[in-house]
């Protein structure tokens, strides 16, 4: 018996060589092939695939029989029994009674919970271990450095190496706690593959070793330091200036030099399956076996065919006989494998699997865990027109159209592994059969029919369901769409199946152009659901309502239906760079932050603003009219403190932050944080924010912190121009300590064609009141009464612009609403001409287009009908600018929750939206270190 990984002294060489192979076979029971492998060749590790497994009970019995054969054949230690069980669409073992379905790796990351990731991994391992399986081929540590064009898709945690590290390590620990050995894959990376040849050719890594080290290798390095048991090296090619190898798992430079020596991995190294077509065609099995072993692999994987497997074994023997392989290397690898076995198996454990009895005990807990995981993973990326829940947008009796892609079978669920023969004929893109035959699959057509039935159970109206293909939008689709009152379009990896992308966008456009029964335009609700890669439309705002499920298993789609109908409030977030989760404080770079010097930094700040305007981002529009002067108020009642991160050598600004303390109100504002687009995600923004908070905390009498400022009018809060960016920014500020769940939605609004504008019929008369009088005044004679009005309304933050307005008698005026009986001011708003002196502080005001500005509305809280007052002063403002021949007009501030409907009634449309966020200074006192 082997102890502590030592090679048993009685083992002959042939038995030792058998420990160096992991092999698979076909069939759901013990076959002659697997008996030969275990009895004759003493193969010590068996790979089980989806077609080997029918149920938890059958799996338990099969594994037990394999172990008994090994013991009877004289194996001193039990077999390692391995399989893929990545969850989501890649599950080799399925049993609808005993084995639970959990989200894919990326779906798991979308929950935002590392604890949940570990719990899922532990539960998965417990289920496998109950069936006698002691080795899981996971976690996947690949970083999607090119997320949009990679077949790996949601099998990866995401595109952020630190996030992949964090979640991957938690999964690894969960697997180990559940009693199974782990195998990281696919070293050095499957996250950025290029496909240069025909589909059967091996894909190629073109990243340099330096780039790999900074991104793709980060999770592998973290896993090694945390105790990863084994590593699978992929069969991909590498072509860089430093490395040129045909297959990574055959390369001494990759396995021995990089993985073993540089990264100090001491666990078991497993080769990719040598039966992959490109490898066996280019090199041959026996030669490939010798090369893999010489490169540093301990276990050689062959998945299917006995003749090929025998060729591999004979090749290794020949390598020993002719001196190509040194015998000490065999001893070294066998010791590593026996050490792994000693930690995760023994004959006692191998002969007494917990079986279905234990699975029955685990079932209630794991069912709750599965439901919770899927509920937290479903991600609503955007819902511009508030179509969710569907019951709000589509009546229960209305017809709903479901359009799903007629895809080739994709990895989904082992429930349909009997379709494996169909899948095995599909192109493998150079991958080995270890994935293609391990990955269980579900026909898209079947699972989407189930989705249609689940949707129908929630409504009285008809559900129409049809598929679409690369043939595009056909007359059938148009006919069904014209009849339906709403549509759901399913996409499955549309980034690599471009016909799906085009189809979804075409249907979305038709819905936007639809006409109601009265002949007037009426947009039809359209929901696009990505059931595989979330990157299909993550950055495409033309898809107004976009949901991601990360896999299309039955459990995922059942949860989707509950989200669509409001039973579950979706909390999932796009993983990786799309959410831009900040680094932990320990890993954050601290930058030197200096006070802004106008003479020193003015030119550099103007250059920084220009760089931000040139970037391909919706935020560029917010800075369109900004210069250094935009941010400098020079108001005696406002204490300004602005900060920069700068390069003292080149004089460049890397970042800029503004703060304003309004002494009369006691409110401190962080008005802007602007970072050079080329230097984002380097913690410059964090450093500026920390300095701004410390500066505001020093202000005597400060009563409130606010994110956003109304004047200067650049950022009223967190921008909401794009749903993806908005979610990313909200997460960023939440990580800094702001409570973004409590926000005040505000907006700037515009009427773009004031020339043809006219007030709605009857609106002027409806706003007429015998109790209220409206007037337009100019000049400083009205300053004192106006300041009293601002004080009573608690709007001291706009005192500066009101002072500037009364001082600019010819360029500005105040429209007021007064109570008739006592002349008390009830409401006011400024009307500003393009030549107004303070216009440079209102960035949303495009004066070159002949635009007038309605600014800083203040409505008293003592009047019972504030909306009527607001509409009244705005109606006079619009008439004023129309008389002035203004071509358009902008309202620089309005509260969405209070005014949006009334403003749209006047003809305004939204220009930019923001979320004001406030907090108590005590909060920052506790958070900021002394």
TrEMBL record:
This is Glycoside hydrolase family 3 N-terminal domain-containing protein. GO terms for biological process: carbohydrate metabolic process; peptidoglycan turnover. Keywords: Glycoprotein, Glycosidase, Hydrolase. The keyword Hydrolase applies. Residues 16-340 form the Glycoside hydrolase family 3 N-terminal domain. Residues 638-714 form the N-acetyltransferase domain. It comes from Exophiala bonariae. The keyword Hydrolase applies. GO terms for molecular function: acyltransferase activity, transferring groups other than amino-acyl groups; hydrolase activity, hydrolyzing O-glycosyl compounds. InterPro entries: Acyl_CoA_acyltransferase (IPR016181), GH (IPR017853), Glyco_hydro_3_C_sf (IPR036881), Glyco_hydro_3_N (IPR001764), Glyco_hydro_3_N_sf (IPR036962), GNAT_dom (IPR000182), NagZ_Beta-hexosaminidase (IPR050226). Belongs to the glycosyl hydrolase 3 family. Coiled coil: none annotated. Pfam families: Acetyltransf_1, Glyco_hydro_3. Gene3D superfamilies: 3.40.630.30, Glycoside hydrolase family 3 C-terminal domain, Glycoside hydrolase, family 3, N-terminal domain.
